[in-house]
Amino acid sequence: MSVLIKNGLVVTASGSYHADVFVEGEKIKAIGSDLAPSVKADEVIEAKGKYILPGAIDPHTHLAMPFMGTTSKDDFETGTTAAACGGTTTVVDFVLQNKGESLYDTVERKKGIADGKVAVDYSLHPAVLDPRPEVIAEVKKAAREYGTPSFKIFLFYDFRVDDYTMIRLLEETKKYGGLVQVHAENFDIVRRLNENFESAGTLSPLYHARAHAILAEEEAVDKAAKMVEFTGSRIYIVHLSSKEGMWKIKKARDRGIEMYAETCPQYLTLNEDRYEEPNWQGAKYVMSPPLRPKDSSDELWLGLKYGDVQTIGTDHCPFDFKGQKDMFGTDDYKKIPNGAPGIETMLMLMHSEGVVKGRISLEQMVAAVSTNTAKMFGLTSKGEVAAGKDADLVIFDPKQKFIVSRDKLHMNVDYTPWEGWELTGMPAAVYSRGRRVAEWDGKQMKFVGEVGAGRFVKRDPRDPA
Ligand code: URP
Ligand code: ZN
Ligand code: ZN
Known about the structure:
Layout: E1 2-11, E2 16-24, E3 27-32, E4 43-46, E5 51-54, E6 56-61, E7 66-67, E8 70-71, H1 76-85, E9 88-96, H2 103-114, E10 121-127, H3 133-137, H4 139-146, E11 150-154, H5 163-176, E12 179-183, H6 187-200, H7 205-211, H8 214-231, E13 234-237, H9 243-254, E14 258-263, H10 265-269, H11 294-306, E15 311-312, H12 321-325, H13 346-355, H14 362-376, E16 393-403, E17 422-432, E18 435-440, E19 445-447
The protein binds N-(aminocarbonyl)-beta-alanine and zinc ion (2 copies).
């Protein structure tokens, strides 16, 4: 199968230009002007007025993940179908290690859940929860053989790790070209605030946000920076939520500490007033870290623009509002499963709220949703519209309007945090390794791919220093 996409604006992280893109089989074969006479294409698509983007890469999803007494609602089939419809052609999902499990078994267990159900390509980050010496020693194999060179640690939740584990993982990843990713919130600050709110009887969803104070994020980011300084390694902060946390990262980077940050559409576009929505609807936004005041969103946009934040992930961890968020009662925010849906809406929100509103350029968007992410996580064949790369492409119509509504999305969850938002710019067609997987049908995105056609992608470690 071959496809010629004509006259689109090819967008890369460093610039944009009008060209034709020729896809043969799974790869981008050629890019140039007026390719029609020199290639034989099974399908020709006119893309005048449209952008040709690399498929978005979501480095932070929790599909079919057991968590806080329940399981995140999207499985690999519904989650990656929704991703495809949003223009995301690769997801990197988290798998939480079980007690006693090797990293190999951890990764294989989730591959067993995913394989055959995946509509776009995927990879996995093992999260280290049981850091036995043999698990730390397995970092080398995970980075070089399993194709999973990134390792998540949590400084929060019951399964958080201690500083020694962080140090050992930083040392091992430095040796073998891996990357530690960290959920940066200080557990004991949140714990003490939880106790205070418990005593005061203030237990509505708003107090989830108050308990997960910005100070807890700042402290954990600072600690991570110190550990990187101590080991000479590098680290990636997941789901950065606050301007204060970002300033800590910036300060560390200015001192030559290799620290990277990911933020999420929810921290850029939603704020803490959401927790006060009537009828306990604030529970929809109970996630960790929580939504922050608007000045944090404004600064995070600036961070993306000026390079202090490198990537966007969704932290897609969906729980139904009815049946899951409320399954342990509505009388205490601590019982609410933490997480929110977003796997389908990343690219459209980043374009409409970011590019259209002038907060970031088109090229900066492409860098943050695809190119930087591919480089950060060793997805060597992805993240760029360039000859030789996988034909993971989005033909994007920058003028197409879409009113976000749960009914028009494909995620298997009963709400979206952006219900009713009017967005500008939607994918016209989405390709995963040269196969069309989603298209605009005039009213909404339609999945036209094949469940099971997505593959596990082995990622490359960075060349060790
Ligand atoms: O609230 C969140 N973010 N839930 C998912 C787990 C995590 O911390 O990333
Ligand atoms: Zn987290
Ligand atoms: Zn997460």
